[in-house]
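Marked as duplicate of an earlier ticket. Keeping the data here for the record.
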Amino acid sequence: MHLHEIHHKALNDDTSWGAAIHIADSHPEWNVRLAPLLVDSCRIVHESFASFMSISLAGARHEQADSVLDQYPIYRPLARRLTRLLTPLADSHRRDLAATGIARFCMSSPILDLLVDSYPREISLSDIPTAWLPDHRFTLIASASARVVAAAGLEADRAFQEHHGHPIDALTLYLTDEALDSAWQSWEERFVSALAENQARLSRLPAITANSHLEAAAALVAAASVDGLTIEPPHEPGEHPLSDLESVQRILTATRIPLREPYKSGMVTPGEGVDLAEILDHCAAHKPPYVVVHGRTTKSLLANFELRSADRAYLEARPPGPVFAVRTLTEYGEDDFVLHTEIGSAREYDELVAAWGDRGLGVNCVTASCFLEPDWQDAWSRSLRAWPTLVLADVGFAAMIGPTHLLGDEQRVDAASIGIGHPSLKALVMHVDGHPHVLMSIADDLTIQLLNGQLVDLLGERLAADKADWTAWYAALSAVTATVLGTESALRYSTR
């Protein structure tokens, strides 16, 4: 259900009511009564929007995407309410835009102005006009007839054509998201306004336009600061609206695919509590034999493993730079336990390579976030060339583009989605012409689709899909996938 939760987050981030929830939840005198009141007043619109959009987005890849609601039957009538309402619209993209516009309208009453005017008094439900409550607005909109919805869709199509210069059904594939973002926004805004104009009760409701709530949010945060309270605003005033590329990256940033509860684990160094030869014997017992040296930021290790308190303190005190280690899954008492045998220098890495010899495959798995810290690379790069390196993408692709970056700036980039022997996960693999490493993301079908879309938008003609032979990398991919899926607690696609 990670998509469902992502849509909740997006709706909260971009609306006045969502900003009010954010601020109330952060305020020590408002988080007990006011924050739950605000949440309860938008529960129906939130769940309806998140359920509808999750099914719609998943349905782009899976014909039976709505079957996931068999496991969450409480969401089915909520999703169907928007489905029935928006059926008169011509296609799924229009319906998605309409659902987004409706949800934002419902969540865009001037609640922040009321909070600013009342500050520092904590308001109650009786202070908020009924017409401002998101769920009340949603009930009114959901009563619109099919004729009104269809007419609003036609009005929105005309607004798109006026803004873009071409009919919405005449779009061509060469047009970029950036060129269309404002046109799509005009469609969404005109649909909602046309819907409201055709219903007297809706036309009288006050609404805050996109991002215009940020000044009131900033004023409320400033008022709290006078009392010595530090509250982070949801966004900054004047911040530009998100492009489609940025919106998808926001989804990827929030995406987390859980694998298990974090394993208990500990850090050790060869010669101090562990014998490197024993660790390599353990790796040699794999069929076929392989050893993987993982490079991770301390943040990644702290997030993925239940480390002993002394090891957490050790990692938190480390200087910037990746931690290189060989992982082994062992038993400690009655618990499974992941042992991280740290390889503390390039010289120790060379000794490991020599000790492993020709017993089997050796491979490195370093996360992309490690490469954002450049100081370590001069000391390690020569040694790491001894074995193939797979770079696990845990930052947005946009951060990897540049002359000295992982995705380069002009070179051809081969990419493909390949099976990894898992029932619900695949690997997206990428290779930049002339680079020694291969980039990879392990994800479910839907996240792979989003990642692929990012590559298409960012790389354009540099991207060559499904044209390379990846056979030489299969063994390395298999070894890395086995250790990542076998030891980590979750898959993430951004460290930010």
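See parent ticket for discussion. Residues 1-5, 59-65, 172-177 have pLDDT under 50 and may be disordered.
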